[in-house]
Amino acid sequence: MFNKTIAIVYLCWSDEPLKYLDAALQAIMAQTYPKEQMELIVVYNAHKENESSAAPLIAQKLFEYQDRLPVATFLEQDKNLGYVGGNNVGIKTALQKKVDYILLHNADGRLDSEAIQKLSALMQSDEQIGASQPLIVLDPANHLINSAGNEFHYLGFAYCGQYRQNIKQIKSVYSRSVGYLSGSAIMMRSDLLTKHGLLDEDYFIYHDDLEYSLRLQSRGYTTKIEPSAVFFHQYQFSRNKEKYYLMERNRLFVLLTYYKIPTLLLVAPMMLMAEIGLVFFAVMDGWLKQKLRAYIYWLKPASWRLIWRKRKIAQKARTISDRRLLSKATAQIEFEEVDCWILKYLANPIMTGYWQIIKIIIFW
Questions:
Q1: Domains, the chain, with CATH or none
Q2: Is the pTM of this model over 0.90?
Q3: CA distances from 122 to 27, 44, 83, 110 (A)
Q4: Contact 167/135 with Cβ under 8 angstroms?
């Protein structure tokens, strides 16, 4: 059970170490998995302008706890590389250390004491499990779910599965395949990262975990949750308007990369209707500028050359049909933070009805 080596990549930036680092380190020191079989890689993704660096604090904490922590490596960056770029810095270092598994660890979370042991056991139980995640609960409201495996909508929308539901309502206490894995806490296989590539840095942040999950699934691997492993997450839904540009751009990245042409043609009418609705919501919610910026991105020839390269690689490497790839796709958006009557009583029923029809047609 303890024969696999595991690297924990803890990515943080700005003042996050001041708020979360100590609790995260305490939880790592409390792991039942032998520290001799683990490595800790802390990546500090720089700090904001006119803000003091937290790098000295990180170095101090790693020195203070060095006797109780796994062997630690501190990688300070001189600029913010984004969630994807920062994690890739840690992943590359972990691969150089030739570990078996790599756990990506959000800055604002902490592991249950048995989390790594249980995730490792799941990964060892089946070589076809490409990556896995623990049950992610809110912190300090530990009785509420943050993610019990994330949901992938057939139009490319992505959201936390069973968000804010009581943990007693979890769909299964056993490990199961999920639509996609949350990047907040995801255990990955080093050999698959070497073979199939690291996180896609063109995403920067948002939908990168969806892309990696679909990459694995399209090549015949499963993505699973282990509910007995728990990650406590001080999650806050970001209402920063700037995120919508990346979310909308990256949503199309995913669809145009992984869907076959017939599938894209089938979903196109509903995508058009969804775009009309999204523009309306963007106007009402104050992020029209970001939505238009996403449209402008796709007017550039360079954007289409980039997506063509991504698509060519993905389609050549895939081993399963769209029918199977979309078997866990959802037709509704059920996320408390974006709940409204138009979505609940108009958009969701229409999207569901359309999906019920076209998923019968998709045989390829």
A1: 6-233 (3.90.550.10), 242-361 (no CATH)
A2: yes
A3: 20, 30, 26, 20
A4: yes
